[in-house]
Amino acid sequence: MPSETLWEIAKAEVEKRGINGSEGDGAEIAEKFVFFIGSKNGGKTTIILRCLDRDEPPKPTLALEYTYGRRAKGHNTPKDIAHFWELGGGTSLLDLISIPITGDTLRTFSLVLVLDLSKPNDLWPTMENLLQATKSHVDKVIMKLGKTNAKAVSEMRQKIWNNMPKDHPDHELIDPFPVPLVIIGSKYDVFQDFESEKRKVICKTLRFVAHYYGASLMFTSKSEALLLKIRGVINQLAFGIDKSKSICVDQNKPLFITAGLDSFGQIGSPPVPENDIGKLHAHSPMELWKKVYEKLFPPKSINTLKDIKDPARDPQYAENEVDEMRIQKDLYKRSSSKSWKQIELDS
Fold first, then answer.
1. What's the CA dihedral at 167, 172, 177, 183 to 10 degrees?
2. Once rounded to an integer, what is the mean pLDDT over residues 80-98?
3. Contact yes or no for 125/90 (Cβ under 8 A)
C-alpha cells in the first residue's frame, strides 16, 4: 500500500483536531494556503508565529513545515482556516516546493518570499532560484488543472490582474506572477546602516522585481510596529482582511508598497551611469536590472549556494545517533557491493 504524502498527513491532522467540524449552523468554512519561502535564517518562522499570535521562540525549520490558523469573520460564525507552509534551507530544498502546490490548493494559494536584506550578495540568487522553481511548478499545475477546469484557471488569472488598475501606465509591461506574491525584506535594522548608495540599489531593484511580478513589497525587522504591518498583510492573504492602501517608497524608511501602487516611472532606470548601460548586454529589463545589481553585489561562489540534493547530508539537520547508523549502513552497502563484484570475478 503506498505511503501517505505529507499533504495527506497534514490534512488528516487538521481533521483530527476538529477543524472540519460543523460550526455556525453549517455555514461554509473558507480555506486558504500561504507558502513561505526565502533566505535561510531570514525570519520566516518569526513572521508566521507573529501572525498567529504565538508567543514562542522560533525553531530552525526542518525541510518543509506545516501549521495552521483559524479566524472567525463575526459573532457565531464558523472560523476560516489558513494553512501555512514554510520551506527551510533557503535554495537547498527546491524539490519540496511541489508538495504544498496542488490542483486542490492553487485556487486559494499565496506565496510569501522573505529575503534577508543583511546579505545583499545572496539576495538576487536566492530570489531568482526560488521564484523560478515555484513558477515552473505552478505553471505545470495550472496547465494540468486547465484540462479539467478551464473556468477555474480563467478566474485565477483574472484575480491576479485585479491588483493592477486597468488604466495603470504599466499594464502592458508587467508579467504578474501566477499566484498572489508578497516580497518581504527582513532584518531592516541591519540594512538601514548600509551606505546610502547600496540601500538605493537594493530598494530600486526590489521595487522593480515586485512591480514586474505584480507583487507587494515591504521591509520588516524585530520592530513591533513593522511586524504589525506585516501581520496585516499576511492576514489579508490568509483570511481576506481588507488590504492596506498605505505606501512608502522612501529608501531612508522601511518600504511598504501594495501591489499595483508602484510604477516603472516612479522607480526610474537602473542606478548605473548612462555610459555603462550600453556595455551591459541584456535581452530583457529583468536581465538588465540583474546585471546592474550583481555589479555592486556579486553573488557568492556557486558552491555556497548550490542545491543540496540529499538533505540527509545537510549539516543543519545533523543528529549524531541517526548519522552514525547512516554511516554504518553506507559502509555495509559498500562492503556488500565489493563482495558481489568479487564473486562475479571469481565466477
1. -60
2. 91
3. no
